[in-house]
Amino acid sequence: MIRRIALHSTLAALVIVGLALPGTDADAQEGLKVYISADMEGVVGVVSGDQLGPTGFEYARFRQIMTNEVNAAIEAAREMGATEILVSDSHGNGENLLIEQLPADIQLIRSWPRPLMMMEGIDASFDAAIFIGYHSSTSNTQGVRAHTISSANLTSVRINGVEMMEASINAAIAGDFGVPVVMISGDDATIDEAHRIIGDMEGAVVKWSLGFHSARTIMPEASYALIGDRVRTALRRLDDFQPYRMSGPVTLEISFKNYMPAEVMAYLPNVDRVDAHTIRFIGKDMTEVSKFIEFTTNYAVNITP
Predict the structure, then answer these.
(1) How far apart, in whole angstroms, are the C-alpha atoms of residue 126 and residue 141?
(2) Among 16, 49, 240, 256, which residue's CB has the most CB atoms within a 10 Å radius?
(3) 146 in the Ramachandran plot: left (φ > 0), alpha (ψ -120 to 50) or beta?
(4) Residue 128 forms part of a structural domain
(5) Residue 19: per-residue pLDDT
(6) Is residue 247, in this structure, part of any structural domain at all?
(7) What's the whole-number mean pLDDT along residues 135-145?
(8) Could you tell me the residue range of the domain that residue 35 belongs to?
(9) Rounded to whole angstroms, how far apart are CA atoms 142 and 44?
(10) How far apart are CA 181 and CA 35, in angstroms?
C-alpha cells in the first residue's frame, strides 16, 4: 500500500508548496492507462553518490523517498481515473524501488538490459507517460548529476541533430507509440531542458541546482504533494499534450569519452565513425535506435550467463 502521510504533515506540505488539497476531481477520466518511468538523480534531496547506489550511506533512505515519490504519482493518477499503471525502475541497477511498498495492482519493470531501456513496456495502449526523478543531460552545464545514459562513458547523445537528455530520448520512444509525456519531476535545470527540447508538459521542481553535487531542496513531504498536484494537473489537461516524435529514418550520434569504443563499434557494417570519439547509426525508428543504444552501453564479450 502507498505510504500514508499523517494528516498534519500533508496539510503542512500542501501549505509549503501552495497547493490545494486533493479531492474528487470533476475532470477525472475513467480507464486511463499510465506509464511511469522513475530515475533517482532528480529525486528530492539527492545531490551525490551517497544517495544513489548500494554503497552510499544514504542509499537505503533515498530508496524509500524514491518509492514515496512514485507512489505519490500513482495515487494522483488513480484520482484522475487511471486504472492500469506500469512502473519502470530505471535507475542504476534497476532494483531501487521498494517493491513491497508499491500498490498490489500495478506492474513493475526491473533490472537490465531492456530493448526499450527506461521505457520498456510502453506501447500504443497507454494514454500518458510520467517521468519521476529525472536529471539534465551530459551537455548541460547546470543540473545535479547531469549525464545522459552513462556518466562514465558518454559525452554526448544526438538524435536527428538534437542534443538529447534521457527524458527526450524516452519521450521519443514513447512518441513512436503515440504516447505523450505529460509530467516530469527533477531539479530546475531538468525541467527547463525538458521544456526546451520536448515541449509542453507539467513540471515539478523539487530542488534547484547549485552545481553537479549540490542543490537547494524542498522537503520530502512537500515533494510528494507537489508531484501529486502536477500529475493531477497533467491528466486533467491530457488533451493538450502531443507525442514527441522523431521522424524516420532516425540518425543517432553517440560520443564516447574514450577512443576505443568508437573505433571498435565502427567495425559494425551499419555504424560510421564520425570523428575520433563519435559514431553514427541510422535506424528506421526510435524503437530500433533504442535497441542499438542498449547494445552499445551493455555489450561486453564476457557477459554472463
Answers:
(1) 34
(2) 256
(3) beta
(4) yes
(5) 56
(6) no
(7) 96
(8) 29-148+165-240
(9) 17
(10) 9
